[in-house]
Amino acid sequence: MSAATKLYKTSWCALRQLQQYRTKTNFSASIDKRNDLFNQEQRRQRDAVGRIDKIEVRYLGLPEDVTLVMNSNISTPFNCAQHLSEGHCKRSALALIDGSVPWDMHRPLQESCTLQLLNFHVSEPHVVNKAFWRTCSFMLGAALNRAFKPEANLQLHSFPGPNIKSGSFVHDIVLQTQTWQPSKEEMRAISAEMVKLAAQDLRIERLDVQQDLAQEMFKDSKYKSEQLPSIAQQTQGRVTLYRMGDHIDISRGPMVGSTGFLGKCTISAALKVAEEGPASAFYRIQGVALPAGFQLNHVAFGILEERSKKPSPARLPNEPFEEQQQQLQLS
User: Fold this and answer.
1) Which InterPro entries does its entry note (predicted)?
2) 59-72, pLDDT tens digit by residue?
3) Is the pLDDT assigned to residue 186 strictly greater than 80?
């Protein structure tokens, strides 16, 4: 091998390392900035509360109905649960306001209301199950960001509204390859990231922001930047964001209060759904999960895993965004 060839190979390897480092650094800087903006807006909204008005929250449930005096726009359903018992704090995944409005556990209450705290053993679990399914899709986006190396140029696209009957939760992504066929080891690695997120028991926070701030937060995300105007048009210029750890995404919610509610989980399928340009493609990642504490034998869960591999009927990410308006506040 000539000296020139050796020099070329050495330089090319160094360039690749530099590009990978730069991509990773840019990604980290983008995440940091997004979180800084989230924190600043969160503080601004708290400071804007001004005079603190008292509200009456009538808790309906075990061990007995009780009226709590809380702080408007500050106190949350989780704070109400803290007045009841440690068990209420641990079990309550979602709140129900005035008998009909699903409400995030860490979202401030705005006015006097009745409050029910929902867990996964309530007689009518449909509402809390939908919130759990939606949260799984949200967590899957974070798990994918953790699992893929920077050179894959992963871009999160969106996650359709939860459809429990479909048998899988979903997150749509774009990769800079049109030939990815994941191995069993790769799918296990993504599943492992979901389990790690659950073990961290990360609080899931909600924040409603103006469209211009959301555009600034996601200006480095091609697909979310394209989606935001349509989302904001449906909601009087407001966009709902969710955060767990340092991962932030767009969703109308609600979601369960913590990643710790995720139990057994398998990411079961990665399906190429369309090509995107000359070198990239859309992929739909699908999985199935149980809430923490639910036990299912290996055979029964295996049936759920096989069912979750079937292509989800949710609208595809490459279809015109305007047609997804009913799903995409990214449900």
Assistant:
1) Beta-grasp_dom_sf, Pro-tRNA_synthetase, TGS, Thr/Ala-tRNA-synth_IIc_edit
2) 999 999 999 999 99
3) yes
Q: Choose among 144, 75, 131, 85: nearest CA to 107.
A: 75
Backbone angles phi, psi at 213, to 5 degrees: -70, -40
Cis peptide before 162 (omega within 30 of 0): no
Which tens digit of pLDDT belongs to each residue from 210-237?
999 999 999 999 999 999 999 999 999 9
The structure tokens 């990815």 sit at: 180
How far is Cα 43 from Cα 225, in angstroms, rounded to an integer?
Answer: 24
The half-sphere exposure of 12 on its side-chain side, counting CA atoms within 13 A, is 6
Q: How confident is the model at residue 28 (pLDDT cuts 50, 70, 90)?
A: confident
CATH of 127-330, one of 2.60.40.420, 3.20.20.140, 1.10.10.10, 3.30.980.10: 3.30.980.10
